[in-house]
Automatic annotation (TrEMBL):
It comes from Nothocercus nigrocapillus. This is Short-chain dehydrogenase/reductase 3. Catalyzes the reduction of all-trans-retinal to all-trans-retinol in the presence of NADPH. InterPro entries: NAD(P)-bd_dom_sf, SDR_fam. Keywords: Lipid metabolism, Membrane, NADP, Oxidoreductase, Transmembrane, Transmembrane helix. Its EC number is 1.1.1.300. The lineage of its organism: Eukaryota, Metazoa, Chordata, Craniata, Vertebrata.
């Protein structure tokens, strides 16, 4: 079974219908993951209302996918304070609340997986998305700490996915200098590779593999050299045409 959480019922309903058409049972609950009380309340509702039909028992969440995120897409001085808080609450703190809500039962069952859809911007920030980059870096540290903490917990694992720019409405309008050299990822590709990583209990996944070069360069090159690379690639100005959706 699949259970969806989100803030917009229209999107949840449409997605749930698509999943059901593929022959998979799906339920949805309206929930703002940035709201701690709402997360705990809806987690309780899931445990009480969602039934695993085979066993006629109340179901337990055994795979938690933290995918919710927003981006304000402005510089620090141009950003609204409430918008900055919203990014941190949803992108980072939301994972604290959802994980605290469902991880205890996974540990009890010795069966579970925490999945985080992060971003390569957690490792290499860009101007014009200071809220998003900060929240994703915090999210990465959260997952890194959580993954290490689960090493002594049999049957429970964690996977963090760090994709390059993905062709969704979220970062619509963002432009890099060499799109043919660094094309945006398709959502289907990210989804498929995420499933593969979960099945293999892979802790961290960078997409595409060329992003590993970025990590290596950041560890060995001086800051001045990194700045020139970013300027040449266009990452310093890629958010100038941003028209995404928060």
């Amino acid at each position: 079974q699949i259970i969806l959480w989100g803030r917009t019922e229209k999107c949840l309903k449409e997605t749930a219908e698509e999943i059901k058409m593929m022959g998979t049972e799906c339920h949805y609950f309206i929930c703002d993951v940035g709201n701690r009380e709402e997360v705990y309340q809806q987690a309780k509702a899931v445990r009480e209302k969602v039934v695993i039909c085979i066993f006629a028992q109340v179901g337990d969440i055994t795979i938690l996918v933290n995918n919710a995120a927003v981006v304000h897409g402005k510089s620090l001085m141009d950003s609204d304070d409430d918008a900055l808080l919203k990014s941190q609450h949803i992108n980072t703190l939301g994972q604290f609340w959802t994980t605290k809500a469902f991880l205890p039962r996974m540990l009890e069952l010795q069966h579970g997986h925490i999945v985080c859809l992060n971003s390569v911007l957690a490792l290499s920030a860009i101007p014009g998305a200071i809220d998003y980059c900060t929240s994703k870096a915090s999210s990465f540290a959260f997952m890194e700490s959580l993954t290490l903490g689960l090493l002594d917990c049999p049957g429970v694992n964690a996977t963090t996915v760090l994709p390059f720019h993905t062709s969704t409405e979220m970062f619509q309008g963002m432009r890099i200098r060499f799109p043919n050299l660094f094309p945006p990822l398709k959502p289907e590709t990210v989804a498929r590779r995420t499933v593969d990583a979960v099945q293999m209990n892979q802790a961290f996944l960078l997409l595409p593999w060329t992003m590993r070069v970025l990590v290596i360069l950041k560890s060995i090159l001086p800051q001045a050299a990194l700045e020139e690379i970013h300027k040449f690639s266009g990452s310093y100005t890629c958010m100038n045409t941003f028209k995404g959706r928060t």
